[in-house]
């Protein structure tokens, strides 16, 4: 019996969430007196996982899995769990993993909890703390099924290095045509831009920026920081920015390490979608703007003066 994690990779390289998940699972395994196994798909240097506490890696290499395919990937994770006699499967909260997690849970007849934000409150009975009400509160959920599946929220557990090496084992799950009944034909990348879902830093602009012609400084700040750009709902409604950048309750959720809001008032519907970010910074000319109540750092000032100065300073580093 071991804990199984799905260690996500892109183009052969592990994403940071894979190491976060390994660190998390290691801590849980220690408290349960068990080990951590990772299943990987077409990843190259699987030894990296050992540095974060993974004891064994089931290495899947299959050209049919080059593009993410939820049904096939869910089958891979399920078969890995069955092979290892796993009672706890741990996934992350990326778009892909959130797609997989419920499918894996159904196929294993397992109870499932998403949005887990901390180490289990108790492992027997198995209880986890979860985000609720758009990160405004928490609840404790008990999973009583024999096999359990959880999805850990991004940024809820840091990287913890461990000593030890991961033993790699080739694993060839049996996949059939039904696994590929939905085919991903093409994946289009927005070149040169960081995707909001994967971004460590997000620079976001609101109606305070007055018009689309003023977004140059937002993009420049994002480029200096290696960040994704985002916006408030009215900004995308006004077609100042594409709808793909709209964040908040009705837009994309953001769980970045750093979220910088420029000229955004901090309406409840906006905050609901970005509240899971670790550090929130606001730049707003109105000291009474509600965003200051939730921000970790705030600059009261005119964005058109503050942002160019910030860019200038950052360029000095
Ligand atoms: P405003 O509220 O107009 O705020 C602009 C801010 O810019 C002000 O605080 C102002 O002081 C500041 N400012 C002005 N000039 C400057 C300057 N020169 N320098 C610095 N600061 C300046 N909104 C979202 O964002 N995401 C959502 O998902 C979302 N979902 C919604 C769902 C529903 C059902 C509803 C009813 C609303 C939703 N909204 C959402 C809209 C939300 O209520 C707010 O209207 C919106 O977030 C406000 O956007 P804003 O902060 O860009 O604009």
From TrEMBL:
* Keyword Electron transport in annotation: yes
Whether Ribosomal protein counts among this entry's keywords is: no
Residue intervals of the Electron transfer flavoprotein alpha/beta-subunit N-terminal domain: 3-184
The cross-references to InterPro entries, in alphabetical order and at most eight, read: DHS-like_NAD/FAD-binding_dom, ETF_a/b_N, ETF_a/FixB, ETF_asu_C, Rossmann-like_a/b/a_fold
Q: Which UniProt keywords apply?
A: Electron transport, Transport
- Specify the domain of life of the species encoding this protein: Bacteria
UniProt record similarity statement: Belongs to the ETF alpha-subunit/FixB family.
Name-wise, this protein is Electron transfer flavoprotein subunit alpha/FixB family protein
The organism named in the record is: Paenimyroides ceti
Question: Lineage of this protein's species?
Answer: Bacteria, Pseudomonadati, Bacteroidota, Flavobacteriia, Flavobacteriales
């Amino acid at each position: 019996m071991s804990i199984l994690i799905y260690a996500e990779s892109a183009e052969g390289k592990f994403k940071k969430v894979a190491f976060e998940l390994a660190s998390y699972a290691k801590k849980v395994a220690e408290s349960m007196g068990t080990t951590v196994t990772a299943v990987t798909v077409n990843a190259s240097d699987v030894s990296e996982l050992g540095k974060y506490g993974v004891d064994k890696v089931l290495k899947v290499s299959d050209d049919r899995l080059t593009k993410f395919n939820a049904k096939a990937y869910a089958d891979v994770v399920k078969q890995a769990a069955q092979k290892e006699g796993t009672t706890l499967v741990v996934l992350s909260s990326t778009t892909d993993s959130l797609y997989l997690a419920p499918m894996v849970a159904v196929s294993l007849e397992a109870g499932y909890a998403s949005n887990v934000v901390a180490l289990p409150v108790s492992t027997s009975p198995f209880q986890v703390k979860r985000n609720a009400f758009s990160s405004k509160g928490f609840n404790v959920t008990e999973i009583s099924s024999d096999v359990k599946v959880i999805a850990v929220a991004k940024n809820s557990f840091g990287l913890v290095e461990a000593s030890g090496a991961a033993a790699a084992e080739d694993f060839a799950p049996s996949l059939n045509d039904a696994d590929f009944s939905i085919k991903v034909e093409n994946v289009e990348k927005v070149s040169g831009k960081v995707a909001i879902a994967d971004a460590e830093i997000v620079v976001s602009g609101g109606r305070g920026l007055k018009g689309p012609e003023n977004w140059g400084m937002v993009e420049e700040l994002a480029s200096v920081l290696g960040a994704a750009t985002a916006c408030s709902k009215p900004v995308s409604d006004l077609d100042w920015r594409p709808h793909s950048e709209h964040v908040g309750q009705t837009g994309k959720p953001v769980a970045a390490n750093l979220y910088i809001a420029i000229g955004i008032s901090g309406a409840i519907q906006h905050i609901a979608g970005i509240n899971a970010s670790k550090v929130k910074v606001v730049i707003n000319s109105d000291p009474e703007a509600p965003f200051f109540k939730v921000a970790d750092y705030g600059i009261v000032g005119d964005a058109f003066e503050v942002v160019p100065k910030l860019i200038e300073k950052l360029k000095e580093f």
